[in-house]
Amino acid sequence: MASVTSLTASVHQRLADALSAALPEAGSADPLLRRSDRADFQANGILALAKKAKANPRDLATQVVARVESGEVIKDIEVSGPGFLNITITDQAITRNLAARYEDGERLGVPLAEHPGTTVIDYAQPNVAKEMHVGHLRSAVIGDAVVQILEFTGENVVRRHHIGDWGTQFGMLIQYLIEHPHELDHKGAAEVSGEEAMSNLNRLYKAARTLFDSDEEFKTRARRRVVDLQAGEPETLAMWQKFVDESKIYFYSVFDKLDLEIRDPDVVGESGYNDMLDETCRLLEESGVAVRSDGALCVFFDDVKGPDGNPVPLIVKKSDGGYGYAATDLSAIRDRVFNLKANSLIYVVDARQSLHFKMVFETARRAGWLNDDVQAQQLAFGTVLGKDGKPFKTREGETIRLVDLLDEAIDRATAVVREKAEKVGLSEQEIEENGRYVGIGAVKYADLSTSAVRDYKFDLDQMVSLNGDTSVYLQYAYARIRSIFGKAGDRTPLAHPELELAPAERALGLHLDRFGRRWTRSPPSTPRTSWRRTCTNWRRSTRRSTTSARSSSRRRRRRSRRTASSCATSPPARSTRAWPSSASGRPSASDGPRPLEEHRYRQLWHHCRMSREPVLCRVRQRSRLCGLPIWAPAGCQWPPLQSRAWRHFPIRCRSWRPTRADARSGSNSRPGD
Prior knowledge:
It catalyses: tRNA(Arg) + L-arginine + ATP = L-arginyl-tRNA(Arg) + AMP + diphosphate. By secondary structure, the protein is an alpha/beta fold.
């Protein structure tokens, strides 16, 4: 397989060479090339380079233009604004690029990733004992498309279907069945499976939910049943497992209708992380990332506030001892990062959960589970609406079942195929088969052709129409084009570089070229099994001030304090005594320099400096992650209490503030030390 150099890479290389020739001291600088509305591409990197070189950016841009080797790729390049470069590609370059990709075969000239990593993508997350509705469509379709694209680039993709198979709802459902055995013939339920079983369970779920919301005593009994489920009580656990198994049969039937590959080992629900919940909460609390608030274990954020202006926390563990959704999601992150060795995590989840995942990802970063080498992102998507632009529901106000929508799409597409089948003489079996392909393809295309972040109207009439931006129209146009090629035979070449491209053809060619760019991932800077051990002092960032001699004096004093310490990742030679020295084994004010978990110290200090949020952290002698003793910088004392550096120093109690007496005496003690 011979890879085809993308137009983006070709233009990028030409600009980089010209930039190095015009400004040798810049070396192999990045011209920062991107797509533009003013031209095919725009380069913005000259502005920053000119600032470093103390040169006029427009003059530097003019010199770069004079040194660019346009060849047969670049048609026009002009300087715009203060120093931007607008680049236009020739029609011949676009045509030849597409022709070369066509001749390459299956991979279309797309190279494999240079440093493939492991990506865990979380998508298609239905709930056990509940029927799938139209809201589950987007996560499944978008997630499957991302999986196929990443696998095509050579990335190692691990699929995860985080089904909802745990929680209060199961205690509610099981308790209702125990109290109302006449509502379900258990023998009959054991014999059925798939859609029929799910319809029965869904009916029971609605009845149990109504009773749960109206009867406080039933609510209490249902919660006790959840405790039995968590404790592994045999009868309760057996009934729960039956619900899970029958629900999976239903899930697989729906996904199979969507032509999506769902494998049983990839289905890891909430229950799969139960054994990790306690340890996750313990690590968060010991590291100071989570704190106790009214008996609950919470993580606070300065930028997340409720209507009353008070911070809204991420509840990891409830005051009654139960675990929140955050504990499960954080445990899943730990499993995917440390067990699956993931480099990136992608969550294809409804945009309405964006705040939750923003808080979860930030918590994982504070805890050190996510860093520069391991990134997590949410691929949020909008809501599916009805023709009237309102939430897609039945006339009775209920959510429309996904399987009903798919069946209706197939029926309408089959009717369209049957109208055209008379001309080509298709059999009834072929009509039904083509109708299924066209119907499901229409639903998936309507989803993927809409921006993921936008809401879109689910209009089956438009989806299967032969007019407009629909998959049916594209398939029909493709069939006609193939017919023309079939009649032409080998008499004419497929590519005609001498012909001028229409604007739509240029846009399509450049868009296809974007997929042809080499997809790279930088190799990790540190081994996954180790942690960075570069020591970071407690100094805080300062703001520049040129208007006050007094502030300048404060900066000089702070600078002198910073240079008084040097970093060490082994026990410092100048340490006055080993920590801890007290009989209780807890640090005291007289212990002098204290050893720290260096990576915890650095992460918490950075978090405190950025968010200005005090963090409670119990300092330990040995790292709980790697077991090695990590010491404080040699000569590094607690920040002086009279300085404002305490505002940014993380190793302190949330409720403690230095008093005037402390400042006069220079005491470094804290409550609890």
